[in-house]
Amino acid sequence: MQRLSITDPGFETAFTRLVDGRRESDITVSQDVATIVERVRRRGDTALAEYTRRFDKHDLVDDADWCIAPEACRAAYEGLDAPLRDALDLAAQRIEAYHRDQLPADRDFTDGAGVRLGARWQPVDAAGLYVPGGRAAYPSSLLMNAIPARVAGVERLVVVTPTRGGESNPLVLAAAHLAGVDEIWCIGGAQAIAALAYGTERIARVDVVTGPGNAWVAEAKRQLYGVVGIDMVAGPSEILVIADGDNDPDWIAADLLSQAEHDPTSQSILITDDAAFANQVEDRVDTQSAQLATRTTAQASWRDNGVMIVVETLDQAIPLANRLAAEHVELAVADPSSLFAGLRHAGSVFLGRHTPEAVGDYVAGPNHVLPTGRRARFASGLSVLDFMKRTSFIELDPGALAAIGPAAVALAEAEGLPAHANSVSMRLK
Amino acid sequence: MQRLSITDPGFETAFTRLVDGRRESDITVSQDVATIVERVRRRGDTALAEYTRRFDKHDLVDDADWCIAPEACRAAYEGLDAPLRDALDLAAQRIEAYHRDQLPADRDFTDGAGVRLGARWQPVDAAGLYVPGGRAAYPSSLLMNAIPARVAGVERLVVVTPTRGGESNPLVLAAAHLAGVDEIWCIGGAQAIAALAYGTERIARVDVVTGPGNAWVAEAKRQLYGVVGIDMVAGPSEILVIADGDNDPDWIAADLLSQAEHDPTSQSILITDDAAFANQVEDRVDTQSAQLATRTTAQASWRDNGVMIVVETLDQAIPLANRLAAEHVELAVADPSSLFAGLRHAGSVFLGRHTPEAVGDYVAGPNHVLPTGRRARFASGLSVLDFMKRTSFIELDPGALAAIGPAAVALAEAEGLPAHANSVSMRLK
């Protein structure tokens, strides 16, 4: 864990290093992924079966090997303990309600020159969702990816997920049932992304691919960007907690650890104006982390990537927060409004002392798929818009063309595009 | 030019080949671009000067070599002939008005569980616009990229443009003045994209890079996606005209040629229910194209990529149009409303007989940067949203946390993330 104070002479250098530091794994998988993608493109299901046998130790022979049936998902949902099923229901309802309000309005109007203009939003035909296998198979991620697609009106919702040795996670299947997933294919890795993008004999191609994955999955999405739409390539998770000394240090320590337990490359940062409070939090992080079932990961993350920054006043925290552009920002103060007003770059913000980031991971409603690695400077969390596209439209009558057509002719001629000019001027005669 | 009829036995095969055909140039520049990007990242302005000397025959020594001053842009604007200046003004006004209506609304509400939820949109800090050199330096493209950024509220607007031998296009400078561009750097190619993404000694980095370019520029954007935000990677332009036999064949021929004159890889497609009309249009394309200053390009495009499809009824055109997902679609019929209602995938639609696509290139108002190469299945034209990002926010008081917190605890425990659960359950005591 790194400790900085804004009054240190070396602060600016150390903070700049923090902002510019990359925590992404540097595995170069580009060539491997290109080979896999090309092979799935050319050989379809045969290539999928080969890679799945090799990487997931799973033989794709019968339909039952390839797909998980909707009945299995329903059975998994119905088999959940009631409190857990209720929690999943509540999460799904709240996520759906929040995302339903994101549906964009169409436009259709005629302006002063008599030109009819507008824009029409429509869902994509089909969306593919990647769900990682093993420990990282989170039902909450499935809901956060599938529900916005469903709200957008996507007709065909396809999940791909590696099932090592044929094993799948019943909680994920339950979530798939709840979200109304149409197909679940037992494939993973770069080969699954290629199958979604190009289609194979069994799997019809989709239009958009979202969802988290390892370095191979991320690189496949990057390489296929343009063949399909993709969500932002995600890096390790991160939290920035801005807290005064009046917080319970145990609460803040738990918030820092909730990011740290995700992955050793996750990053938890505390900025406070109270050095004694920072000491208390550090102490509680050590105490709490020792008791976690996830302690190996959480302790490694905190040791290697944890940061505590002491400032003189919390106002100084905001320019630092804007440079960090963190995925999650907690403003743990009595009245967060003025700090929030100055915050320019953040994926999602958690206001006040009673809003732990984890409520946003599960049940608050806004999406938990958020820009990481300083990308909140330019990117947004996943939304209904990622599963829709906008078509603009224009309609002129002869009067409207007479009003604006001559300017188009002048500009086309100036750009050296005479056929553009002709197509307008012929209609002006 | 390829001619198909829906009643041909081989139609489905030929049409599928058309839909799946790639017109992108297959130059593999990936390794070259990776080298350039890495060198600009490490060596900054030194690398920029070397590449600019080599590729653009332009020496970057003094400030005047590096930058085009705002005064030069103002002088270029004031030096335009009055009709051309008026046309540029009209275009800028109409583009601005259309895009101002795209500004998204923030959300801030408290739901039935007492949870405050919302989303706040803010512009990125800085945007970089690529403007190609030479013939493809279009002032209309500068307006279409710069004005949405300005409307979004972007504070710093940076243009990069190669100035071969130090030459720049006065119309582009005039458009830069009109759009309020803050900086113009005389650099181009992959090296310019790398400079915008990483920053150099002279050039501060930006957050989003948009604008058209050659294969090197497109590949650099693809490689730097995630370091900066980018707009969709663009391929060759295309138009699909759906027309009945009551159109003036000269008008439709001009519309087809207005795409063909862009580039030999551009594609113009006519679908009509009148075979005799198709013959007339073919004839007029030949006549008109012979008289164009752009005939070499237009004739090559029409010969190699032009398509005419005869259908039995125009209703049959719509499923074909949805598979083509063209950048531009004209519906040249008396009442286009029912055809338009069935159209699912198109970048921009031009309704009726008096709406040539070229009015959309210049003065209608909607953006002319549109998804190409069937990407209208999942992508939209450039908009104000490309220069903004959304931050979600959540605020709970103890009552709201008591209402939804227990579900978060249950889900966190089920996912094996105890620190997530702790951060909520501690606050519930």
TrEMBL record, chains A, B:
Gene Ontology annotations for the cellular component aspect, listed alphabetically: cytosol
Catalytic activity: L-histidinol + 2 NAD(+) + H2O = L-histidine + 2 NADH + 3 H(+)
The protein's name: Histidinol dehydrogenase
Binding site for Zn(2+): 259, 262, 361, 420
Stored PANTHER family: HISTIDINE BIOSYNTHESIS TRIFUNCTIONAL PROTEIN (PTHR21256:SF2), HISTIDINOL DEHYDROGENASE HDH (PTHR21256)
GO biological process assignments: L-histidine biosynthetic process
InterPro entries: Ald_DH/histidinol_DH (IPR016161), Histidinol_DH_CS (IPR001692), Histidinol_DH_monofunct (IPR022695), Hstdl_DH (IPR012131)
Cofactor binding note: Binds 1 zinc ion per subunit.
Enzyme Commission designation: 1.1.1.23
Gene assigned in the entry: hisD
Positions that bind substrate: 237, 259, 262, 328, 361, 415, 420
Annotated NAD(+) binding sites: 130, 191, 214
GO molecular function, one term: histidinol dehydrogenase activity
Active site: 327 (proton acceptor), 328 (proton acceptor)
Swiss-Prot/TrEMBL cofactor(s): Zn(2+)
PROSITE patterns: HISOL_DEHYDROGENASE
Pathway: Amino-acid biosynthesis; L-histidine biosynthesis; L-histidine from 5-phospho-alpha-D-ribose 1-diphosphate: step 9/9
Keywords: Amino-acid biosynthesis, Histidine biosynthesis, Metal-binding, NAD, Oxidoreductase, Zinc
SUPFAM superfamilies xrefs: ALDH-like
Keyword Cell inner membrane annotated: no
CDD domains linked: Histidinol_dh
Protein source organism: Pelagerythrobacter marensis
Function: Catalyzes the sequential NAD-dependent oxidations of L-histidinol to L-histidinaldehyde and then to L-histidine.
Membership in a protein family: Belongs to the histidinol dehydrogenase family.
Lineage: superkingdom: Bacteria
